[in-house]
Amino acid sequence: MDGKVFSPIWVVAGLGNPGRKYSKTRHNAGFMAVDELAARHGGQMAEKAGYAIAEIAIGGSRAVLVKPLTYMNLSGQAVRAVLQKKGISPEHLIVIHDDMDLEAARLRVRKNGSSGGHRGVESVIRETGTINFIRVRIGIGRDPAVPAETYVLQKFSKEESVSMKEAVSSAALAVEIIISEGLEKAMNRFNPK
Description:
This protein is an alpha/beta fold and 193 residues long. It has one domain (10-190): 3-Layer(aba) Sandwich (Rossmann fold). The chain is built from 6 helices and 7 strands, in the order E-H-E-E-E-H-E-E-H-E-H-H-H. Strand 3 and strand 4 (61-68) form a beta hairpin.
């Protein structure tokens, strides 16, 4: 052995719904963050059966970017398939998703926990058999006058689009920090005190 320490490979899954109809909707914040990471690091998303995938390098580690194309409620199928194919433990899985319980454009990074009622996260938990993966949650707020299932599929307003662009950029940065500097650093930077 020459004493080299190899960094783990990470899987970064952004949750959303495929197709043009959903591309700029609140539920696709996870897709947007993965697209941002691909753009920053020169990754080209290629479509496979059930997901789009790209491999990039972040801070000396390899990261596999994934966008499940199975629709939100079945996101976990694609995530499980990629983890198995690449031989990666869910401990090196980062899931980026929208969160109605956070005010719009707010970010939270957490290690594990319940799905919080998010169907995509529920699917990932069900398919991987664990809650032990990292989540980067992008706040989309909520409108009490609009049913949740309608609200998440609405497009961002002009004002929201500006703040969400910043939030998506921050989510990509959070992933970069998790991979290159560790989860604690990311949590300290992005989670409110």
